[in-house]
Design a protein that fits this description.
The complex is a heterodimer of chains A (about 60) and B (about 200).
Chain A lengths: L6 H4 L1 H21 L8 H13 L5
Chain B lengths: L1 H23 L1 H24 L3 E3 L5 E2 L2 E2 H22 L10 H24 L3 E3 L5 E2 L2 E2 L2 H20 L4 H30 L2
Antiparallel strand pairs in B: 1-4, 2-3, 5-6
Helix pairs in contact in B: 1-2, 1-3, 2-3, 2-6, 3-4, 4-5, 5-6
Classes of the chains: A mainly alpha (about 60), B mainly alpha (about 200).
Amino acid sequence: MRSSSPRLFILLPLILLAAMMMVGLGIEAIRYHTLLWATKIPLAVLLAVAFFKSPRGR
Amino acid sequence: MHLLIEVLTLLFFLGFVAHAVILRGVAGAAFFGAMLLLGFLRENFVALRDILYGFAPLHLMFGRAPLIASIIWGYSIYAALVWAEGVSGEQYGTRRPSARFLVLVALFMIALACFYEPFLALIGMARWQAGTRSVLGVPLITWLGYPSLAILFLLLWSWAMERDSGAKRAAALLVSLPVLAVGHALGLQAIKDVLGL
């Protein structure tokens, strides 16, 4: 089941997390007129690593 | 604003549960059940003992603590697990994970702390004890608290899954999860006090 699942589906929780980060940035900008971007960099980098370096076809 | 974040987090959490069940079957559901129990026990203990941090009055409560506080642990640990599996190629199952895998999980949990904490403080959902030391709005104690709970839970789950029957596995979890929940909260408060964090 797992090995035949599409890669994007396997990474779905990380996609949702990235979406949550975007929602957070939106709330910060619209409601509080600020962007806490610096503290989001570590997570953004790790998510990017997963999407670009994740072994394929497992 | 708070309700929007609570509902959104709950929906994403349910998406994570569905993902775990589809990919891991009954074990995925049990995994989330255990993490939900851990989160519920830990956050309610923090609320009852008034240690580490306080809670804003939110719309969705689960016992004495907000629902979001209970589910965020499972949400975060599962995300760290998926990320560590994705970048390492190691599959987390019933066997004890490698040290490399646990380090990757810890790294991801620290990155999550950096994302969550300043945002929660900005919108008034995180209320750490007065005098808590922070860098860029991230309490230093979270760099220890987030990864340690994830690693201890994953090791505990692997240990419980080594039992040879479902009943023994459930019993192992029901005995050890409350110990982990209470021990982690008290231990973190003690470290925070000793190190002046």
